[in-house]
Amino acid sequence: MSQMTMVQAINHALRLELGRNERVLVLGEDVGRNGGVFRATDGLMAAFGPDRVVDMPLAESAIVGAAVGLAMGGMCPVAEIQFLGFIYEAMDQMASQAARVRFRSNGRFSAPLVVRAPFGGGVRTPEVHSDSLEALFVHTPGLYVVMPSTPYDAKGLLLTAIRTPDPVLFLEPMALYRSFRQEVPEGDYEIPLGAARVVRAGTQLTLVGWGPVVPVMEEAAERSAVSCDIIDLRWLSPIDWPCVLASVEKTGRAVVVHEAVRTGGLGAEVAATIQERAFLSLEAPVMRVTGYDTPYPVPLLEDDWLPNLERIRHAIKRTMEF
Amino acid sequence: MADNGLTPELMKEMYYYMVLSRAVDDRMWILNRQGKAPVVYSSNGHEAAQVGSAFALNRGEDWICPYYRDLALVLAYGMSVRDVMLHLLGRAQDPNSGGRQMPAHWGHRQLHILTGGSVVATQDVHATGLALASKVLKDGRVSVAYFGEGSTSQGEFHEALNFAAVHKLPVIFFNENNGYAISVPARKQMAVMDVAARAAGYGMPGVIVDGNDPLKVYEVTREAAERARSGDGPTLIEAKTYRFVPHSSDDDDRAYRSREEVQEWKKRDPLVMFEQRLTEDGILNDDNLTAMRQQIKDLVNDATDFAEQAPLPDPGTLYAEVYGS
């Protein structure tokens, strides 16, 4: 065990898997000599050589498309998109290639690949550098989507993702890359596909969120007199519905929190499923605390645009008083 | 011909696949007009380019990444006529997609025919990824992306060629230039005369070949494959050819091509020209031609009957193979 930041834990997982499986290959912009713009792939090219850690030309569609070809050719590629907002350039390769290879070939081909991408707000990078686009990919059958909120989860989830025989989009909250350290085992461990994490047990209200909002939810619960159950979904596709529903059946109240814009966001799916499957347990409508329906704002507005402590506390209060 | 590895037997086999493809193609149109096949995409006119290039590869071993025009290619690569007909009619046993894709979306794992989507040029980057896998795994395979000239306007064409050239990957980009992307002529697709001219911008050889001559196509493809296998990187081949029929069974090419132009190209029908040549060389004669035609007719009839009687996909399999885990 050692204390690691999330970005160190990600590096650790990649190093472990490159060493364990010779078919694993890392590719992306600046991932080689530079070790990635966030240093997630630091030292990997020196350790494993330029054929296993490939500096790609600056072209997102070629990065994801090459990963699709590599995967169908028997490799286990881990591609990096430098910022999630740039993945629009590779949208066809994600949604109509990687996600559908298995279905369209009736299982004769598959694309076991991982696309890693930093995303999210709070680091003063306006517009596409901060976009939270998870809903686009959860809306794409054939893809798995996962998002860690701790260093421990980052390592275990990435190892699971690389070993999953389907394409996985691995979303890394930039704001959490170096925000805190945690004990992370040196060795190998996986976190099961589709398993949410109960962050904190409570009795009066369920807070459901993922990625960068998890520490904010924790702080809101700390400071609240309301006893909150906190669920970090981790896997956004597939969602751990038994975990969410058991919590809501216990508490009778739920608030969903995400950084992504509100309309058509994944929070709507969570709220809809709760009312479909746990309606008689509900004491109040399911509330959402989300980004607003605008492109990601200028730094001056960022702290208010994001689901901050105050907005979560307000939602808890309104739900309790309904 | 002795130095290029092509024996009379192989040339006869090339001719066989060209004729087989045309016969399967003709039957597909009949099945469409009978209301049995939803849509047809023809290789009619492209047979020499496709079969000539296939024979220059390790068929069934090297990766090919076809597009919808490549019926003759996949037949020459080992796909059976029954499998083609199962695919056309969307039957459960279709090895390409289990009836899940539109006709002419080829893919066959055992034969190393890569599954493809409908968006053009996506296979260019897949071929490049496969070639990177071959480089790392040192398996000696070459990957070949096949595509029309219209798709060279796509960003992914550029991304694939650039990446492949930088990393000297064992890949061939094989363009079947028939002059039209559905209705849009090549002069509205690009401001250069030849697709091959684009190769210079990527630092790879660009080769123009008569796409209606299977032996010339064979030779340039063989050279490109040797170059790829020896670590010298990719080649862009442009096979100039023509499709003799509309883009698809839902298209009417009279809207954009004159009948005179089509007739002019039909004088250079690759089947007719190759048959003349092989007859003159004594490789084909009336007897073996008659036998071959009968064999093909029987195969096409058998495959049609077989596919028509084969079951459709079970609706209960809707959720199968969305995920593997």
Describe this structure in words.
With 322 residues, chain A is α/β, with parallel strands linked by helices. Chain A is 36% helix and 20% strand. Chain A folds into 2 domains: 183 residues, Rossmann fold (3-Layer(aba) Sandwich); 125 residues, Rossmann fold (3-Layer(aba) Sandwich). In chain A, the strands form 3 sheets. Chain A has a 7-stranded mixed beta sheet, sandwiched between helices. In chain A, strands 9-11-10-13-14 form a 5-stranded mixed beta sheet, with helices on both faces. In chain A, strands 1-8 form a two-stranded antiparallel ribbon. The termini of chain A are far apart. The model of chain A has no long low-confidence stretch (mean pLDDT 97). Chain B has 325 residues and is an alpha/beta fold. Chain B has one domain: Thiamin diphosphate (ThDP)-binding fold, Pyr/PP domains (Rossmann fold, 3-Layer(aba) Sandwich). Helix content of chain B is 42%, strand content 10%. Chain B has 10 helices and 7 strands. In chain B, a hairpin with a 2-residue loop joins strand 4 and strand 5. Chain B is globular, with a radius of gyration of 19 Å. At the A-B interface, helix 3, helix 4 and helix 5 of A face helix 5 and helix 6 of B.
Strand-residue proportion of chain B: 5-15%
Mean pLDDT of chain B: 97
How many extended strands of chain B?
7
N- and C-termini, Cα separation of chain B: 52 Å
Strand line-up of the largest beta sheet of chain A: 3-2-4-5-7-6-12
- The helix/strand order of chain A is EHEHEHEHHEHEHEEEEHEEHEHEHH
Helix content of chain A: 25-40%
Just give the CATH class of chain B.
Alpha Beta
Structural class of chain A: alpha/beta
Please estimate the helix content of chain B: 40-55%
Structural class of chain B: alpha/beta
CATH architecture classification of the largest domain in chain A: 3-Layer(aba) Sandwich
Strand order across the biggest sheet of chain B?
Answer: 1-2-3-7-6
Enumerate how many helices of chain A there are, as a single number. Answer: 12
Main pleated sheet of chain B = 5 strands, parallel
Amino-to-carboxy terminus distance of chain A = 46 Å
Gyration radius from CA atoms of chain B, angstroms: 19 Å
Please tell me the overall pLDDT of chain A. Answer: 97
- Main sheet overview of chain A: 7 strands, mixed
